[in-house]
Amino acid sequence: MADDGGKGMRFREGKRIGVVVLAAALFLLLPFSGAKALKERTLRASCPSVCGETVVSRTARDGMILSLPGTWNLAEVVLEIDDAEEIYLGDAQTPFRRGEAGDLTGKTGTGLAIRNRDGMTLGHVTILQGSRLPALFLTVDADELKAAGRDKDRRIDRGHACWLETDGSVGYDGEITQLKGRGNNTFRYMKKPWQVKLAEKAPLGGMEAAKTWVLLANWCDISLLRNQIVMDVSRAAGLRNALECRQADVWINGAYQGLYLVSEKIQVGKERIPITNLEKATEKAEGWTEDPGKLVKGGTKELPLTRSYPAVPDPEDITGGYIATIEKTHRLRDYLLAGFRTEEGLSVQIKEPTNPSPAQTEYLGGVVRRIHRALMAGDGRDPETGKAFSELLDTESFALRALTEEWCKNYDLLGGSQFFYKDSDAADPRVYAGPAWDYDLSFGNMKDRGYSPEAPYIAQFPKNGNLYWLLEKHADFTDLEGKLWRERFRPALAVLLGEREEMPGESLCPLDAYYAQIADSAAMNTARWGVNSAATGPYSGESFDHAFSYLKNWITKRTAWMDARFGDGEE
């Protein structure tokens, strides 16, 4: 592998994390007496000086792993185990009395014996503490959680959530009205992605206050950073309505679930995508009921496949707002998804309104067809209406998205998470690209899309279903790409690459800072889930440290390649 820059920093940090993980692994392989007793017990911990939440240990082989939030004060931890009023930890015999805080300082990362006052060994534990990140504690019915983990459509409609900020303050402590699985392929993995809806709006991690939040598991990304980096870059580059996100450790019913990326949800709303709410307007239309009826398959010559809800009535204005995504052809064909496929072969899933009527589906289909026809035309104009593509879509947002896809070589370039939205014609008749979403399979993380950081990407797929390829056939669009690269995108990457300091209030930071922010939690996540090397390429990550080194090296080389194409900003 080529030089990685910052190698010394990563070695020192990696050595520290490696010692933690290695010590835990070696300990768990050691036999000890009383294994049967250990499996029947659970170690519980709380930190009353920070919050009232309790975390529980997880049995791993012949020992326990206890994962603690990074914001907890180790000198003030209440530690309890079943059937013992008092326990003694490690060779130092540090006492912990039921209900009283004790001191765990210096006891993380190694295997410790747990004994009662009679000297009987009750078990062994490895205690890990995460990075100083927010912590999310969810409490729901255990049986409902198992069912929701098996079926993405199962929803848990009651529970409790507590969000702990990095300074130890409580950002939310209240009820939740929904917890459900999310994602397509990602839901099939062991570490589940979730969507949680709070009973009240809350500004988690300083993000815009909202009820609904998405918990991305990042199972296919051993670096755990790809999604966060692209989202932060898109915001710094000025993509309209780009999402905010925060890394956070998550516990459900006290059990550690791993490091998640907590993100805003792509949805219509003042705090998210502030466009006309067609769904609410539909609910006010005559004949509306809470039951949308069945999703019905249909089609016309212009739209050979449609899926919509005939029982849903229409308001007077159905021109917006819509949120949709270009979808993989087989998903729209095989799954029960609302949307359409155009005569030109472009598949689109409609996300909002959630239950689009036939008229709404056909209206958006017509909008997309006019854009598609204009892009395929040599002069960039729809042959039926004479309108240029620049009149039908916002070229700036599409240029920023094209730069993003080219820069990171996103696996879902052709469909899956290519979001776009449209307001009502009265507000703005154009279609906007974004927000940026779903980048775990990017930055050289998929073999069949190429590991090399130094090759064209969008141009590899010269087909009418690739809107960015169609756009780049028009010189005025590529000129805009170059301008935005030099004036907006590249200055953001200068922060990422450590070439300039970040501005106050800027979420984007240098790559080494991203590493440092999550290193301890990444080790804790690895202890919980292991390394999912089977889901990624062999070069993109054998461990967290290796995955980060690969990612940093790849981004550095890719940015240099993009500079050569668009100019490095020195003009």
General description of the model:
By secondary structure, the protein is of the alpha+beta class. The protein has three domains: 99 residues, no CATH class; 107 residues, no CATH class; 210 residues, no CATH class. It contains 13 helices and 25 strands. The strands form four sheets. It has a seven-stranded mixed β-barrel with strand order 11-13-14-15-16-18-17. Strand 13 and strand 14 form a beta hairpin. Helix 9 packs across helix 11 and helix 11 packs across helix 13. The two termini are 32 Å apart. The N terminus is likely disordered.
The low-confidence parts are: 1-39
Tally of individual helices: 13
The overall pLDDT, averaged over residues, is 90
Helix content: 25-40%
- Rg estimate, integer Å: 26 Å
- Physical arrangement of strands within the biggest beta sheet: 11-13-14-15-16-18-17
Shape: globular
Main sheet record: 7 strands, mixed, barrel
Strand pairing plus helix content: what structural class?
alpha+beta
Please state roughly what percent of the residues sit in beta strands, choosing from under 5%, 5-15%, 15-25%, 25-35%, 35-45% or over 45%. 15-25%
Overall number of domains: 3
**How many β-strands, per DSSP?**
25
The CA-CA distance between the termini, in Å, is: 32 Å
